[in-house]
Amino acid sequence: MTTNQQATSTPTVHHAIVKSIFSGDTLVVKPLSRAAANEAEQRISLNYIIAPKLARPPTDTSAGGPSADEPYAFETREFLRKKLVGQEICYTVDFQIPQSNRLMCTVYLGKDKETGENIIESLLSEGLVELRQPSGQRANDTKYQRLVIIDEQAKSNKRGRYSDQLAEVHVRNMKWSLENPKQFVDEHKSQPPLDAIVEFVRDGNTVRCLLLPSYYLVTVQIAGIKCPMLKREGSSTNETNEPFAEEAKQYVDTRLLQRQVKVILDGVNNQNLVGTLLHPNGNIALHLLKEGLAKCVDWSLTLLQPGWR
């Protein structure tokens, strides 16, 4: 084989930061370098495997409305979230599905695919995903044969979906809304902060959180502050973002999206919860104020619990 032939057959190694986990086999990644910061984020899917599907929300009418998690779907998502979000990965594109432009990839944790953890292998070894049935040349693919061995080991060790536990034990009881937000806040005001995962950042001071372990999906307005407003979806073309609105959203997005936080519930506004969000580096409201990306507002300052004003 010539040098040119070798170069052609060597897959390009891409480097990125994982922004979020879309599902148990699909990641949302963004460019690693500042020079490529204007490049759009993209989804990449893990080759060779099928992950159990997460529940669809009631608003997802295009997919037939709400559904329940498949067994181990949330555990698979969480396995990837805890391991990958905010971390550098490298990956190779094995092939692209023409109809959807879906990129099927092999992903490694870290800078070097020779030493980095193979994420597909890790998922299989935990018994969290299904190995796709071979087709064509794939049956003789050495990478695929290695995955077959790993999957068989997981089965022998009764890992994940191969365990003797009932599958229903590994399904979340999702609650897509609160029937009585005020009552919910009153019940939790004197309790320790709630654990939550930030699932979506709408703007600098509004996020969607999955409360744990109750699995309520709630909208939380950050208490005590107001960030510049983004243009509303579906609004007239004359409406524009307020200055620094995008920067405020990006600031929160980078630090909180799919991160685990603590939520102190302070009150209710228009059926949305108003609360204090604490992440490992402290109160996100204080950080937004220090960066000049938010201002204090009296109406929600009065809701803050003593010691947080």
TrEMBL record:
Matches recorded under SMART domains: SNc (SM00318)
Gene Ontology CC annotations of this record: cytosol; nucleus
Record-level Gene Ontology MF annotations: nuclease activity; RNA binding
Superkingdom, taxonomy of origin: Eukaryota
GO BP term, example: mRNA catabolic process
Domain TNase-like: 12-164, 192-295
InterPro entries given in the database record: SNase_OB-fold_sf, Staphylococal_nuclease_OB-fold
PANTHER family membership: EBNA2 BINDING PROTEIN P100, STAPHYLOCOCCAL NUCLEASE DOMAIN-CONTAINING PROTEIN 1
Protein name, entry field: TNase-like domain-containing protein
Native species: Adineta ricciae (Rotifer)
